[in-house]
Amino acid sequence: MQSLAAGYRALVIGASGAIGRAFHDTLVADPACQAVVALSRSTHAGFDLRESGSLEQAAAVLAPHGPFSVVIDATGVLSIDPSGPEKSLAAVRPAALNDLVQINAIGPLLLLRALTPYLARERCLYGKLSARVGSISDNRLGGWYGYRASKAALNMLLQTAAIELHRRLPNLVVAAMQPGTVVSPLSHRFVSAATATVSAAEAATGLLKTLDQLPARSGAYFVDYRGESIPW
Ligand SMILES: NC(=O)c1ccc[n+]([C@@H]2O[C@H](COP(=O)([O-])OP(=O)(O)OC[C@H]3O[C@@H](n4cnc5c(N)ncnc54)[C@H](OP(=O)(O)O)[C@@H]3O)[C@@H](O)[C@H]2O)c1
After folding, report:
1. 3.30.70.330, 3.40.50.720, 3.30.420.40, 3.40.710.10: CATH of 8-224
2. Percentage helix, strand, coil, to 5, in the chain?
3. Which of 58, 95, 194, 227 is most buried when burial is the number of CB atoms within 10 A of its CB?
4. Model pTM greater than 0.85?
């Protein structure tokens, strides 16, 4: 990462996922990166975005590995219901909607709060995987109620936290990120090798390059892997 001093430390949350693993491997390959710590349900027993106490515990365990100059949160779910994301109003289930908001929006916000003491005071890049379908202004197709709503909620929570945190951490960059269309366990029912726009490795490389170029500001960014801004 060009904008960070050599010897920086990174944390990848959701490193067990397709895109999270690609972020992890890309950061490990950067000679300027001293250490990359992985956090997921497989590396830390009990860690779960639905359990707020587990997020505080995970952050406390990670504290000795910080301060982190790069944090990537690549967690997320498309649907809780085995039948997949809702195609119609009739398919909306309150419990599933609640779960999606908890995993995609509330959990990531509480994790950002728990990790704040361990973010580097110098330049620090905090990238959370969001999704273009969380853009309200870009929604022309409808459907996928829970995923869209949880990502829109995530975007608002990131924007609000970024404004507040900028007062204490003026060198912090917060970004809601769209990786492109990537084949993964999350997307495999809808995305094939033929319809994917990028590999997980290309998505991670593009998003790290994008993050690297963003100046710190009071507010979050909503950007894609090509560095293009997405309307909220
Ligand atoms: N793939 C795409 O085309 C695409 C497009 C737009 C946006 N995105 C976003 O990119 C991110 C990564 O997606 P992906 O395609 O890499 O999916 P993935 O391979 O299914 O990875 C999802 C990650 O989220 C973690 N996770 C799920 N539920 C969790 C929970 N309750 N507590 C803690 N961790 C949990 C998973 O951990 P476990 O391994 O423990 O299950 C895994 O590390 C998501 O935010 C997704 O919305 C993806």
Report:
1. 3.40.50.720
2. 40, 15, 45
3. 58
4. yes
Cα 92 to middle of ligand 1, angstroms: 21
Distance of CA 144 to the CA centre of its chain: 19
In the sheet with 8-13, reading across from the earlier edge strand, the strands are 33-39, 8-13, 70-73, 124-129, 172-178, 221-224
- Top mutation candidate among 55, 181, 184 for ligand 1, by most atoms within 8 Å of CB: 184
- For 220-232, the pLDDT digits (tens) are 999 999 999 999 9
Crossing angle, helix 18-28 and helix 200-213, to 10 degrees?
Answer: 60
Q: Tell me the pLDDT tens digit for each residue of 118-145.
A: 999 999 999 999 999 999 999 999 999 9
Q: What value does the mean pLDDT of the chain take?
A: 96
Domains of the chain, by residue range, sit at 8-224
